[in-house]
Amino acid sequence: MSTTAAASGQMPAPVPLRDDAAVIGLVGLAHASSHFAHLLLPPLFPVFAQEFGLSFSQLGFLMTVFFVISGTGQASAGFLVDKVGARPVLFASFVSFICACLAGYFAQGYWGLMLVAMFAGLGNAPFHPVDFSILNQRVSTHRLGYAFSAHGLSGNLGWALTPVFLLFFTAWQGWRSGYLAAALMYACILAVLVAKRAHLKTEVVRRAADAPKGSDVAFLRLPVVWWCFAFFLLSTMTLAVVQNFASPIMQAMHGVSFESATTMITAYMLAGALGMFVGGFVAARVPAATDRVVAGSMGAGAVLIVVAATGWLGGFGSMAMLAATGFAVGIGGPSRDMMIKKATPKGATGRVYGTVYSGLDTGFAIAPLIYGFFMDRALYTATLLLAAVFLALSVVAALGVGKRTNSGTTPERLRALPFSLREGDNASARRRSERDVRWHGLLRGHRFFERISA
């Protein structure tokens, strides 16, 4: 466990592969579950539009609500994870997912769907600070590239599973049954994580006695953090098209069936998962070139989307191009996470990942409003071309991150923020830690999860 060892100044003891694999597997399962929640609503947009008489703009706004809550919550959750640990926050997220699924089961109209978006967004908020805090602390350094690959791959598998899962139950017993089944699935996964909770414990960061005022947010003065934020914002605005609108775009432009168009989304996610797998080896072999790997992947993806937008290849050819985009972007995923790790000051993992990955949620929040405007006016080609432009701009952001991490210009004084890791679970230290946290209501809500995770 490299973080703890580094904090003590000792050489890390060899960690058995089995232990690292257990951590990677549990975090991957949790990450897949969070990505599953991203698509609790979009695959059923055509159903909701017909049953509740909703426009694409109204449906897109549901995802804006989801990602506004997730994005603002993610930035805050990074501080909470550093203060109380990743494990109790993770358990609380699964309770939110269960509530989101039950809200979907009982939904009677637009506001019922809004509850789904709100609960799912709240549950999704802490996942990147939680996941990367656990991985960076508990997985051996030389296996982190593979850990990040498995993390990204599991997320894509979660995305790929959701449309198939919901459409299966929709065809079998109606769309409400899919939400009930999803609630049961989340409850089972939560039970597994609680049973294996020893693998998920992270050390808590506390303020140094001589820490200056405002040191908690000193990392925000690093320009590289905001370049990372911009990268996630731009690249995610492309992914939002595939998740939310690729199905109706393909139906409108080429007359493909609803089932075929929805399957294309699953193909995109599976291709992305394969790209993540390949990208893990790339990240492990060329760790010094992470920015260039990411830039090349995003650039290739932008070209493929342009080809799909032209419609030259027909319906299935265009869908194949969009699926191939998932593979191209997926290759850059592990290198992207290694790139962010380079930009992270020591002792601030939760806060930096929370802030940086909130760019992802911001992109998802903005994109449906922009694309919904074009979709309501039947500007389908323009919608895809705009997505390609955003992905091309993310290339510039990736190279900007690389310039600031590879050149060694990150100030050393911000590389060593005034925090230290503590081992054990001293009660008085925990009380001091809790008093430092602004969100006392959130902490009261997490105490139950802290007890079951002890």
In a few lines, what is going on in this structure?
By secondary structure, this protein is mainly alpha-helical.
Write the layout of secondary structure elements.
Blueprint: H1 2-8, H2 17-38, H3 45-52, H4 56-84, H5 86-106, H6 110-124, H7 127-138, H8 144-173, H9 175-195, E1 204-207, H10 223-254, H11 258-285, H12 290-310, H13 314-331, H14 333-342, H15 349-376, H16 380-406, H17 412-415, E2 419-422, H18 427-436, H19 440-452
Antiparallel strand pairs: 1-2
Helix pairs in contact: 2-6, 2-7, 2-8, 4-5, 4-6, 4-7, 4-15, 5-6, 5-7, 5-9, 5-19, 7-15, 8-9, 8-11, 8-14, 10-11, 10-13, 10-15, 10-16, 11-13, 11-14, 12-13, 12-14, 12-16, 14-16
Describe this structure in words.
- The chain is mostly helical.
- The protein has one domain: MFS general substrate transporter like domains (Growth Hormone, Chain: A, Up-down Bundle).
- The chain is built from 19 helices and two strands.
- It has helices spanning 2-8, 17-38, 45-52, 56-84, 86-106, 110-124, 127-138, 144-173, 175-195, 223-254, 258-285, 290-310, 314-331, 333-342, 349-376, 380-406, 412-415, 427-436, 440-452; strands at 204-207, 419-422.
- A two-stranded antiparallel sheet has the order 1-2.
- α10 packs parallel to α15.
- The longest helix is centred in the middle third of the chain and has 32 residues, at 223-254.
- It is globular and about 55 Å long.
- The model is unreliable at 1-9 and 409-454 (pLDDT under 50).
